[in-house]
């Protein structure tokens, strides 16, 4: 208004030097730490600057007050179970992606084609998932930004636009297995054709998202996700208990890494289905709903965010273990049948031996898998149908939220969740409807899910490497950056994954089946073209990933809690409160 002075922004560095008569003491990092009270939106102007009211509160503190404040901030964070429950939610949203229909298909393929030998891949992928979620939580909490927003500020415009298109494709691809899984459930319960079930998934997801209009709608959605995951876990555990598993082979496959001929492509699919790239954008955005303004409270949130995924990850591991075990037990005969006391060949004493499958692995699909349950076609398929619905609906909601964060961050476009949901579901449903209507066989739909899993595995390092670079950046995170050990371990994993993925291009599942023709063969020309194409794809893929390995992000905004690590006032930046705008 005319004649009214605009409140001036006061940086923590001004207060550190003793501005307004406060000398000899330092006020740590965030003015909002005053009184250890979270800051309200009224304390922040549209440009994010701290208002004069808040700055005057800070400047009027006595030396004794600030000493007590510093002591409070340096107090060790203590675990409180009630507070932990209050902050529970974002981790469950992220982990639910690890038990979606795409993940169930990866488990089913691993168990039916390679018995228990791929359990170690699932286990270590789950461990990597926890590390990735921990990095996501730390970055989102201490930077006050979700990954897409930080990417837009830290990389050239052409890279940002390219990455936005790429991640949008990943999010849409992630949604395809969800609608196919829901279509399978509709076929099990009602006998509907697959395309009808795919279309029905649109309506049910919209019904679930209606709760966003309720009071505390986001928390209600988190509770719904938790309920669906719990139902799914209980149902599969009951079936595993009834059906049983070969315990010796199970532990051997878990503890001893084994790579079968032709299993490389499936291993990439498992990694992509477990450590899903869209989760990085989801969790860094979801934790924004839990961030307080005080440093001590922020430390608690990070502790809880780091611990929260452990339980859901254990649950997802149990679900994956159950599906692999059920598939392996039904497809592969046991070396030592139950009740056999003699061991004439010494096979049981020597260790687990995987015999030839009694079923064609390709004949076991997500649709008919329930027919091999011990509880029979009726009861077993009811359990499996409910599990598919729970996995599909929970995962569909999380991909919708991810899409909102991605669009908001990369191109600064905030649109209502309803609009985003309709657009995302339509784009995801379209290819699934076409495939379901034209092919109409579960084997073909399963093949589509398998391709999506591999695409996610190939996309993972492209999304994960920038997150690691930003989380380790001194200018962005200050003293809150990830440790040097975690940085190098994470980068080593990504570089290994890049070359592992590149090697898969030469397997029989991709270009390898066309490369072996000799000069006299009619397929010789195609073999040469396949070799050239494989080389080009490999070079492009490795180049893209290593661009992010060597390209250091350009930091234009620093983490609010890292301001004290800066030398100039120009480096300070207000807290970003717009991260969750897309969900309201």
TrEMBL record:
Membrane-spanning segments: 119-141, 161-184, 190-212, 224-244, 264-287, 307-328, 383-410, 422-439, 445-465, 485-506, 526-550
UniProt membrane topology term: Multi-pass membrane protein
Region of interest: Disordered: 1-48
Database matches in Pfam families: Nramp (PF01566)
An example molecular function term from Gene Ontology annotations: cadmium ion transmembrane transporter activity
PANTHER family linked: NATURAL RESISTANCE-ASSOCIATED MACROPHAGE PROTEIN 2, SOLUTE CARRIER PROTEIN FAMILY 11 MEMBER
Protein name per Swiss-Prot or TrEMBL: Uncharacterized protein
């Amino acid at each position: 208004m005319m004649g009214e002075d605009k409140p001036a922004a006061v940086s923590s560095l001004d207060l550190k030097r003793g501005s307004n008569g406060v000398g000899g003491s330092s006020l740590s990092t965030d003015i909002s730490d005053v009184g250890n009270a979270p800051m309200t939106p009224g304390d922040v102007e549209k440009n994010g600057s701290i208002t004069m009211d808040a700055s005057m509160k800070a400047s009027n503190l006595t030396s004794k007050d600030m000493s007590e404040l510093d002591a409070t901030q340096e107090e060790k964070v203590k675990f409180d179970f009630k507070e932990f429950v209050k902050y529970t939610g974002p981790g469950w949203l992220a982990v639910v992606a690890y038990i979606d229909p795409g993940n169930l298909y990866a488990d089913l393929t691993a168990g039916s084609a390679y018995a228990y030998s791929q359990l170690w891949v699932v286990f270590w992928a789950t461990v990597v998932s926890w590390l990735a979620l921990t990095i996501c939580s730390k970055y989102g909490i201490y930077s006050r930004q979700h990954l897409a927003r930080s990417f837009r500020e830290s990389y050239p415009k052409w890279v940002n636009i390219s990455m936005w298109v790429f991640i949008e494709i990943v999010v849409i691809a992630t949604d395809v297995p969800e609608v196919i899984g829901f279509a399978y459930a509709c076929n099990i319960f009602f006998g509907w054709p697959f395309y009808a079930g795919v279309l029905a998934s649109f309506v049910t997801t919209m019904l679930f998202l209606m709760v966003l209009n309720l009071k505390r709608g986001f928390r209600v959605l988190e509770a719904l996700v938790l309920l669906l995951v719990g139902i799914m876990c209980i149902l599969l555990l009951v079936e595993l208990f009834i059906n049983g598993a070969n315990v010796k082979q199970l532990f051997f496959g878990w503890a001893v890494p084994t790579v079968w001929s032709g299993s490389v492509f499936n291993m990439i699919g498992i990694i992509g289905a477990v450590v899903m790239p869209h989760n990085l954008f989801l969790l860094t955005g979801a934790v924004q709903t839990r961030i307080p303004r005080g440093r001590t409270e922020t430390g608690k949130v990070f502790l809880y965010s780091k611990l929260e995924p452990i339980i859901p990850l254990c649950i997802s591991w149990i679900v994956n273990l159950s599906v692999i075990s059920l598939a392996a037990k039904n497809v592969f005969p046991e070396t030592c049948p139950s009740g056999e006391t003699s061991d004439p060949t010494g096979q049981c004493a020597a260790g687990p031996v995987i015999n030839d499958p009694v079923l064609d692995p390709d004949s076991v699909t997500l649709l008919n898998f329930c027919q091999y349950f011990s509880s029979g076609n009726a009861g077993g398929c009811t359990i499996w149908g409910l599990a598919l619905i729970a996995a599909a609906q929970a995962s569909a909601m999380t991909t919708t939220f991810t899409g909102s964060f991605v669009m908001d961050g990369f191109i600064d476009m905030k649109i209502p969740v309803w609009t985003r949901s309709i657009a995302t579901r339509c784009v995801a449903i379209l290819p699934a409807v076409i495939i379901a209507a034209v092919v109409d066989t579960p084997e073909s739909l399963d093949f589509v899910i398998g391709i999506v899993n591999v695409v996610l595995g190939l996309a993972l390092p492209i999304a994960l490497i920038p997150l690691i670079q930003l989380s380790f950046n001194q200018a962005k995170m200050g003293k809150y950056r990830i440790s040097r050990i975690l940085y190098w371990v994470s980068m080593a994993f990504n570089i290994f994954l890049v070359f592992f993925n590149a090697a898969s291009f030469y397997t029989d599942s991709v270009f390898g089946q066309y490369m072996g023709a000799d000069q006299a063969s009619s397929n010789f020309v195609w073999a040469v073209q396949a070799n050239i194409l494989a080389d080009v794809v490999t070079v492009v893929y490795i180049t893209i990933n290593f661009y992010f390995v060597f390209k250091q992000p350009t930091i234009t905004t620093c983490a609010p809690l890292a301001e004290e690590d800066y030398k100039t006032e120009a480096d300070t930046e207000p807290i970003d409160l717009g991260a969750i705008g897309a969900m309201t």
